[in-house]
Amino acid sequence: MPLAQTATSVPVTVNKDLCIADKGCTVCVDVCPLDVLRIAVTDDGTKTAYMKYDECWYCMPCEADCPTGAVTVNLPYLLK
Amino acid sequence: MDEILDGLTQIDCDILVIGGGTAGPMAALKAKKKNPEANVVLLDKANVKRSGAISMGMDGLNNSVIPGYATPEQYTKEITIANDGICDQAAVYRYAEECYGIIQELDSFGIRFQKDQNGEYDVKKVHHIGTYVLPMPNGDTVKKALYRQLRKARINIVNRYMATRLLTGEGRVAGAICVNTRTAEFLVVRAKAVIMGLGAAGRLGLPTSGYLYGTYENASNSGEGYAMAYHAGAGLANLECYQINPLIKDYNGPACAYVAGPLGGYTANAAGERFIECDYWSGQMMQEFYDELQGGKGPVFLKLNHLAEETVAEIERVLHIVERPTRGHFHAGRGTDYRKTMIEMHISEIGFCSGHSASGVFVDENARTTIAGLYAAGDMANVPHNYMLGAFTHGAFAGEDAADYIKDMDFAEFDHAEVEAERLRVLAPTKRDDGIPPNQIEYKTRRLVNDYLQPPKVTAKMQLAQKRFAEVREDMEQGMYVRDAHELMRSLEASTILDCADMAAAASLYRTESRWGLYHNRVEYERDDENWFCHTILTKGADGQPAHAKKAVQPYVVDIADEEKDAYYNQRVDPSVAAE
Hints:
Domain FAD-dependent oxidoreductase 2 FAD-binding (chain B): 14-382
Strand order of the largest sheet of chain A: 1-4
Radius of gyration of chain B: 23 Å
Distance between the termini of chain B: 64 Å
Largest interface: A-B, 28 and 42 residues
Domain Fumarate reductase/succinate dehydrogenase flavoprotein-like C-terminal (chain B): 448-556
Strand content of chain B: 15-25%
Helix content of chain A: 10-25%
CATH superfamily of the domain at 430-552 in chain B: Fumarate reductase/succinate dehydrogenase flavoprotein-like, C-terminal domain
Structural class of chain B: alpha+beta
Oligomer: heterodimer
GO molecular function (chain B): electron transfer activity; flavin adenine dinucleotide binding; succinate dehydrogenase activity
Order of helices and strands of chain A: EHEEHE
CATH topology of the domain at 12-66 in chain A: Alpha-Beta Plaits
CATH architecture of the domain at 12-66 in chain A: 2-Layer Sandwich
Pfam families (chain B): FAD_binding_2, Succ_DH_flav_C
Radius of gyration of chain A: 13 Å
InterPro entries (chain B): FAD-dep_OxRdtase_2_FAD-bd, FAD/NAD-bd_sf, Fum_R/Succ_DH_flav-like_C_sf, Fum_Rdtase/Succ_DH_flav-like_C, SdhA/FrdA/AprA
Number of strands of chain A: 4
């Protein structure tokens, strides 16, 4: 059975103007208990963290430990 | 990252601790302290800095036994009664005697506990009988404080490796097979002793929101400890005594009546009336909660809107910083103000967790399982109502006992074919071109758990569950498909969850009586002390299916008078009193 591409809105958002992944920071990726964050290269060539997998316990280490306040944890839509 | 690589490395250590949440770090620290020469490895599928149930901290100790407030005898009695008598008291009593020392040790790590004006611990009463709840004003710092200690003690930390199977040989534990969650490379760890602290099976039932990770427990606690112990041949006790918790509906986090209770908050029905005398969680309390939800007076709420502004502000301060801080976001999103409206509650999906109930890998008062050299502590070990302080304290017991056990012990020989067989099993979903993704296998398993295993339990429904689980297992083994190492981790969790679902059904069918209130409410059977005043032990049978045996409850250390035995059955508020 081939796979479909079903869209979901992700609860964790990253302000890429504040994110310093370009300087090598991976704090949010490192601390996530469910390992759902990754670093991506944006259109202008800089790096930013983003939520790759919609598997969130909305626990908040990513937001609490981010050194620049770039990460926001929202509630997943299904339960908010 | 996440690309599937081929690789296998082997390392050796004296003591392997699997799980870096609560029990694991304390076990590693205590083992190293007792035997500084020992090579102690602490392994976690996440990052020890923020892994486990207390990822964001904890708002208090729910079961501290502090001299002057409670005695070990009193606590042991309370937990025995709360658990309907099915309790080997030695492990509870030892905990009650030694947990005060652990509190002082945590204090020395920089984790503060609330004190009154006289500098005494400010212990609160929440339980039915005794006084054991100690708030932690800076409970958000627990993991950081633990991590500092681990670094200081030079514990070898291995992050992002998921243990999938234990290795045994010569009748004892020999190590574990692990997989990197970002590369799929294998790591075989040979160890003289293994301590498991892998937390609850918290992804067993499906939350009512339908969101797979919107669980009561940390969603990374998917039950690997239970599944690994089972496949290694260890005994698991009283799995039919499910964990079901009262929680904030949809948010699925704890309502924290333990925090709000001592400040005047309480659980109420839709009319704002109390219906239970005591908010401490037990099977009977959960049955009363369920009855109120299902009856005409539901739903159920946490009531704070009668309290003074400064009291509500204090409750908010604690609840919005510690343990599940997004609850502040949740309430803000719905416009819920504790001052004005009551907070809608519900009951959680089912799970295994002895931290709140009694379903766990069988251990004795030294945290030893039924396999030599293999230990378990925390939510996955069967010491009832153990909470966070129990995880720390029994983790300490495990670490200290293991430090002695490994002296003059060499590595056990194991069958290397087991490693090859495990590689084939784990990697099978990577060898297909398409198929069923792990999230669908998991969703279906957990939806079936809700449909057929959620109490009240009915024999015919549980038998149907077994049939459906077998079909899902066939699909999983023949057709599960993953595209990267991250999905491979999820596929392993799906397999674990299915193992736990099978164990939950089998254990519940075996005990043909009702016990522990809602946790094991079998509608066709009454409580039957004559035949079932015992533990049930589930093991993996010779045919690869769950096998069962009864195990006698050890003679009590602390006697319980007949008139005390039913204290937890008299929880419903007398209607004539409630009306006043």
